[in-house]
Amino acid sequence: MKHVIHLALGRTDYARAYALQHELHRMRCQGEIGDVVITVEHDPVFTIGRSGSRSNIRVSEAERERVGIPVYEIERGGDITYHGPGQIVCYPIIDLRDYGRDIKRYIASLEQAMIGLCADYGVEATRRAGYPGVWVGMRKIASIGVSVRHWVTLHGLAFNVDVNKEHFAMINPCGLPIEMISLAELTPDDMPMERVIEGLLGHMRQLFDWDILERDVNEYWRRIDG
Amino acid sequence: MEQDNDNYLRLPDLGEVDEVTIVEWLKGEGEGFSTGDDLVEVETEKTTFIVDAPSDGRMVRITRKEGEKARVGDPLAELTS
Question: What is the interface pTM, i.e. ipTM, of the complex?
Fold first, then answer.
């Protein structure tokens, strides 16, 4: 069993969480800390991965600025995606050398955790060959985008609990003309974010053989804020 | 020539991954590097992976260009140590 620290950031601006991820990645690479898993709900933001481009933003710059959604070009794999309130974003910062050095297996485990989470709510979700992420029929409920440097992971997954579909409609998610869907559209269950996060971490705990320790994020924010 | 392990940077074993795409070379031909320096960024399965330098050396010739595919063990560049 591996000890993993969970940092629950709550609602956090993308750039601030990005800075924290990078500081934790540096610390993990240098052996100052063990594995960490961040959960966060971002303010609305578009992020573009290394194989993406701004051409997948379907609205004009003026319209995007009017709505007030910033764009960040980052180092993860994949194309463009949206993060916002009502979506669980999870960033495991773990050393894959301790998990069999297998990128495909890591991605499959992230997908499996979210498929299990859907099943907890009575929703049948699947993988689609060649299209990483989690799907309910032809609609996508969760996205994956990861970066690995010195075998330590950055970025991770985004799971739609109850997101703003108008924001998603401003882009071609993952560069594809696909429709996104939220868990809330598929089940009448009441689902506070904290409980869904707990459910997701429960599946990750099983799949990765984790012993999860809760930690106050403030001691880590102090490293970013000086 | 490409059989000579010592003189080539090869795509490391990334597990069950079939193939990767070369995204960007982070060192150019003729540039020197130290152990652990970032050399090339590759992408597969919505994941980018940085291949770092196995030892100190210099980049002689890039054999797999940006946008091209590579499999585990394929030579990506010729190096000197």
Answer: 0.94
